[in-house]
Protein 1
Amino acid sequence: MKTFGIVSHYFSNFTVVFSIEKLIYKPIYLNELIPIGTKVIVEINPYDDKEISNLIYQGNNICDSSDDDILIKILYDLEETSIEPTSNDPFVREDLSQLFVATIDPEGSRDLDDAISIKDDKLFIHIADVVSYYNENIDDILKRGNTYYLRHSNVPMISRDYAENIISLLPGSKKRAITLEFNIDTLKLIRYYPSLIENKIQLTYEDVDNILEGQLNNYSNNVINLVNNMKTIYDKLSILAKVHINISSLSHKMIEELMILANNAIAKITPDSIYRFHDKPYVNKAGYLQRFVGSQINQYINIDINNITELIKRVPQQKTIQHLIKHMMSKAVYTKDNSSHWALNLDKYTHFTSPIRRAADIIVHMKLLLPGIQFDSANFLDKINYAEEQQKCIESILEELDVRRKTVVGALYQACVIKVTPKSVDYYIPYFNTTHSFHVSECSDGEFLTYSPDKAGQLISTKFHYYLGKCSVLLLSDFNIGSGKKVFKILQEDVSPELL
């Protein structure tokens, strides 16, 4: 198997490499002499600790990100597709090109697969129609699973020209879409149908946030009215308790809520489809969040979707809370079973709104638009779940590279205690988005620490006091850029909990 690693040090006549993938912990030995800090792709035998591994590709020093994408493409054998689209449109379409349509995406986005319109008493959610272009060659598309997003580039699931130009809902021409039409008051789905739309303006999340903050000078009345109406709809939708992770801006939350509305509506009307299942949190991991929040508000809490979203707002250490929530979450998967989604507090859920970048959405489109098609979506479950996991691995590698690049020996980092035992104290460090465990001997400066089970655990002496939620400053005293091993020292300096 192949793995992505970084040169750590030399041993005898060998170069020692450590993988930055989570499941490979052993040192890797190479015969080649390679500079410390170099990124490499190596072929290893995970079952033989003594085997000398083979070098596949040698990149640049870890501080240089220019070749990150190259190494990841080699690691996962990522190549762009050349699958030809189908020429004929199989659907009769309703022309909606006169509607004021807008897309809202991150700055620089090219694969635009959702757009919004509001007119009179109706909300229109338009989704790019991939099936109409590839219905005869859909199996080849689905085998890819999803678009892979790297650091400086991406590897599209479909051909790049179609993903970023022809199918993408860019302004300037009529585009094929599947339109979902909702009653704006009840937010119930009225109907769905193939359509032709024309995007009138491509907005960014920053544009929408500017309007919501009252900065209106650069925007037309059509744009301002659309955003204000979306905010009204968002206020209705956000009443239902949900757990969102790493969604910070209001504009992003608004779009997220509208897409959830669309996905939930489709899940209710599409039989024998692909569903998104998210189970309840892991009991043993949920306990960390339960104890932490409870200790901060002096109240026992149940890990229940209907109360947890309000309770955590009362805790000042929001970055730490987000980490603990993510830690306790079970993994969402695609399934044939019509199952619930815990984090979104919904009985039925699917993915429908991102067909340019996700194969699961295309399967649901096919089930909705071509009900008579003989298509065994179950055969693709393993593929689309694997592709999703692979994208998460890519994101993990890129995040770890970033962490190592910004790590500075001698620097001070803010941290928050998330676990206390008789033998150790665990700190969460937001700057690195990671935890670090200190043995009790590293916390006491020679003093004897007494463990108290009050408030889920405290370590106390005449000089030191460790408890859940305690905010400290950590000094990074040593760091190995190859293995990623960090050595911290706790400084007894108080930090504002709002920073953590």
Protein 2
Amino acid sequence: MSASREKKKRQEFTASGASDPKNSRAAEEAAVRRSNRLYSGIFIALAVVAVGLLVYNSGIIGRNQTAVTIDGEKYTVPQTAYYYQQAYQNFMNTYGGYASLFGLDTSKPLKDQAYSEDQSWDEFFKEQAVDNMRLVHAAKTAAKEEGIVLDGEELEAYNENLEAFKSAAAQQGYSYKAYLTAIYGPTMTPSIYEACSQDSFLASKYSSEYSEKNFVYSDEEIQAYYEENKNTYDLVDGGYVTVSGAPEAKTDAEGNAIEATEEEKEAAMAQAKETAQQILDAYNAGQDLESAATSVDDTASYNVSEELSYSSSTYGDWLFDESRRSGDAEILEGDSVYYVAVFNGRQRQEALDYNVRHILITAESLELAEGEEATEEQLTAKAQEILDSWDGTEDGFAALANENSKDPGSNTTGGLYENVPKGQMISEFQNWCYEPGRKAGDTGIVYNASTGAHIMYFVGYGDTQYWHYACENAMVNSAMNEWQQSLIDSVTAETDEGGMKSVG
């Protein structure tokens, strides 16, 4: 594996993001999966967090008050607040508007909301913060013992994030110090914040270097992993129709639901099976699955695709059975439902990674009146204006990106993203890159309502297929999770009740 490609696989070390917020180990796994954009996410995210969301309201607290002690090293209230906000913001970045589904109301104090039967949301984020502090403490200690320092690419990344934070402060009408206070509380100072950030970046560097040395897998090992986990990385060309076998809902005179009898349930399932057989007969007679379904029962739901992913279900297990052969079609019985399943073929996800440059045009790119919102037409027109000024060379496009792009992840590198695997970018961006006939040097403009207008320049496809990338990434993630947990377990932490009351 090349050095440049290996760098793209470095793992963010300090985040506490969660695929399941009630599982701390899963939180670490979600953080590790953010592997392709080293050091960027959480720090910049903190720069744009809504000011006052978690602002301290208890007054000025002693800056030197201890909140956590890790292997004898004391961490103060503002230091702990740094990691607390990191844990909170990482959760919000992961779930955004879905936080309410987990019972979190961002308009109310976290201390007054139950995360579980015996823990508030405030306590949950404090727990996450302490775990991250243990992780960073152990890693930075090991880094110093091995003579690893923050320099080069990592130091540049740290400085860029610091400048992004200061820029966000200015945009919000705050001084740097006042912005820190608004986000972290009255005890936070620039020196404390920068020291915490440097510790996190140093821990990240140590983690990256450790991963590069110890979690490297041969093509044979990756192939073996794939063979053991085919369902995760394969796609099926096929589909299924769902025919409900639930009895028709009935109510009494007062509008109360009447539970169906066993005879009614059996009759409904029998009717569903008959309908499913008619759909299968129509399919076998030459109709496509969708037409067969609608011609028999326009209430039947269907799902047909050339790229069906595996799901553990009656139809999913059938479609991904190793014995399946092209042309197989069968009626399957589920819980109060019948499926008509059709199998056309199975393939490994072999889409190549790609290299692309882009220029992101947002509302900030336009001269808008106060209160005016940017429209798609305005953004794409601005994008076209910039593209029209392009000199036709890749270097010229890179210069335009550095000058005009609002993407902080690429507007200092000529808009370049390298070795991008399928599934990483927004659909409009990705679909443009994978359009049939796409070739090096192609340009275009795509629009996404959430991000803005993207001026595209296609550099070319890479040589790594998605299944290979995904398998390797999963193997590295698993190894990283185990190693990170061992680091956490290698240190002990004690919390000070008085100090922790001032955090959050």
Protein 3
Amino acid sequence: MTNSQRVIVNTIAQYTRTIINVCLSLYSTRLILSVLGQSDYGIYSVVAGVVAMLSFVTNALVITTQRYLSFHHGKKDINQVRLVFGNSWLLHLFLGILVVIVLGALGPWITQNFLNIDDVRRDAALFVYFAAVLMLFLSFITAPVRALFVARENIVYTSVVDVLDGVFRLLIAILLSKITYDHLVSYSGLLICISIFNLLAFVIYAAIKFPEFHLPKLQELDKQYIKGLSNFAGWTIYSAGCVIARNQGISIVLNLFYGTIVNSAYGIAQQVSGAVQFLSTSILNAMNPQIMKAEGAGERQKMLRLSEYASKYSFLLLALVAIPLVAEMPTILKVWLDNVPEYATMFCRLILVAALCDQISIGLTSANQAIGKIRTYNTIFYTLKLLVVIIGWGCLRCHLPIISIMWTYVIIEFVTSLLRLPLMKYIAGIDMVQFCKNVFMRIIIPCLIIIVACCVSITYVELTWRIVVTMGMSFVFGSIAIWATALEMTEKNYIKQVIGNIIS
């Protein structure tokens, strides 16, 4: 299988996984919200969210491990790959234990003094907290194994595991109403079982299939590798931490000013955004190993070109779904949820617009990671993202409408997305004019066509069928516009070749 074919297969696998999991997640959330109620659902969102603020460490370490594994795969040095994996797993284990100790000690204080939770639900909230801490530890020791799958470009298996994860969550949602014990506590306990399953699924398969997989010994600890991994991971942790702190910081600010009911609305918006963004990040995740390998092989221009493709494809895939969702959000939430929390529609709409803004130049982040010079980039770019929490708190403190914090979110996402270009000009010498020509100019017409299709559907179609028609028209006319204006001739020819090979 060629590199391009592998990217296509992996993208299809992730796209299929995402569609299935989005459907499963939407129905699961409907059931969970119904069983728990808005108050308990809000408690779970804000309490688990506090722990989730540190899940960025796991994500950052996955990125770090995958970068080094793919980089050395590009150099075709299997011994280095093995050393990187072993030292990475030891680093994950050490940090996981450290995080558990620190968070475990802080748990009672956080749930009793830091969060706005009713006294009668504080014991349940504390259990949710410790359950989230345990799941965080399991994700720590799963992360390097998952990174190995990504570096190996075995996305099909990871997609299968992720689908099973979604199926199990749906089963939990169905069974929860039949459990007589505290529903919030039961829900958290059952989620721990899913985390254990994910760990075993990846470890067992990797032990059988991948020669570089092994349970490392302390004697394998290499200071040089630990230093390199730690330095890269440190700045990646900072960037991921800023994003998580931004997301959860908004949740905490909303909790302080409006209570857990508003957290329920924001939690739904975050779930919608996360589910939809998976559609766009599927192509990015499939292309990331190729971007890293190109840099490892010394092919800088190829790497930068791949990052342009990643930005364009990720944005367009998200636009095909996000724009019609924004247009039909009130109806979608009514169909999805029995009782739509106040502000949920507005939160969902604006958070999707913010996601679109971020995707415009998302591939440049992968390019920067491939190069490895991330200190300047991450310090400037991700620090600016934190301004949402500060400015948002100031807006609510000054009694401005709640929508002000979400518009602040959108504006800063747009500004930071544009900021990627001068940053990568400085770091990698990227041609900003070429990037604008190859990416920005080619996404304008498809976006306008999708918006027009949505407007026509909303104006002329009866409500009963409007959601289906809006999504269908957006996809059909948007796809035509993408083919006609967004794709270069070389891209069109390659797609025709792939389709021809499949048919034949």
Protein 4
Amino acid sequence: MGVQINGDTGNISATKADYSGNVTIGGTLTYEDVTNIDSVGLVTAREGIEVGARPGVAASISVDGNMIVSGVTTIGGNIKVGTGVTLSPDGDMFATGVCTATSFAGDGSALTGIGGTDFIHSEQINNSGIVTAQSFVPTVGQFSHRNLIINGAMQIAQRGTSTSSNATYCVDRFMCLFSGTDESPTFSHVDVSSGTTPYTSGFRKALKITNGNQTGGAGTSDYIAVDVRLEAQDLANSGWNYVSSSSFITYSFWVKSSVAQNFYGYFKTSDGTSQQYPFETGALTADTWTKITKTIPGNSNLQFDNNNEQGLMIRFAAFRGTDKTSSSVTLNAWGAYNSNARMPDNTSTWYTTNDATLEMTGFQLEVGPVATPFEHRSFHDDLQRCFRYYRQFGANNALPTPQSYNRFAIGYSPTGGSSARFVIQLDPPMRTNPLNANLTTGGDFNTQPGNSASSSAITVDDNSCNVNSMTIFCDGLSSVSTGDAISLHADGDTTSFIAINADF
């Protein structure tokens, strides 16, 4: 008998059965010893699918979508994972998203399409040959002579801690400028507050501008600014291909304003046809240190002669009246210098706020398209570089507290009577010949023999000066004999000084 139906449970037991209609099973259907399942529709397995007899399951597909294979899996076509990853039969992998790996094996010779500067992250690269890169950014330490600006950390202030005079220096190499003000601003050499970002980055000094009381408001010709000026040869020999738009220099500095606003500045070249490059800080948050970075391309119109004359001026303006500004000025682009349109029209809020302050430090100008960490130099190194432009003997504010008996030079009396002659060696050499017009003296002096001499009695022998030495005369002495050896020193006065200026 082929089919047997037992009782009213509807059980069917058969060794062979043929059905021409539908078969509906309400309970559990158990298959044993089934070789193939041929289905033209969907097969849904609620408990997963296993291939192979336990305990040696060769492959399984769980209900959460995972497939586990214990042996080799061979697939003739592509394998796709979502829409982002494809594995081809020849071993290639194509990914449209981010690939993250803890290590990489191979020489990388077949890698293509790697751009930018941020694809290598390594504490150390060991290479037996030459490594060539468009730019290199150190994360710690310094590379010497990157910074073309001298005293960018504001350490050196030979002339004193403050000034309220136009076209003078407080911090060395940074000229203080203003005009048209109702009350003169004050430029001061100040400490950087501890706990601030510049402080934790190694800066201890800053240049601070304190605005006066500008009761007349912002006049068209009013301005307050700070200049840093570079020798042309420093640009010419910097390695910057300044006539190429694909070669860059990068300018960076820290700034803090007591007033929230935008500020402007500009680059100005001196050689050939002068060019200008206006820039802005962007909106500053009040009383917050902000680092400003500007990457500047070369331009075919730029020229820097290989000499010791001024080649580049960088001006940062606290305020500039409308007589030298224009709304038509294009930021971040080189153009012919226009004295009446140097930068966009300035916001006047800072200028019209009594006692508003502006602090700055960390000035760096370097060749390349990125701002590297600031090149911190020693106090001695920056001081020696500043001596090329300004040198003060005696009451030098950049040095430890001066003594009351400073000896300046040993000389002699060439003719006797009341005059003496002294030679002061200049090391390092000055930028230009320190002629009499570049001499400043102060305080009281004394000679031995010859007694006291006033500062006004000291002059420069223009015919016997060069960048390496300066010859000075001292007149008004008491009777001295021809050929007498004479010493020149301070007359018990810590303010006595002899200063030589070779700055721009």
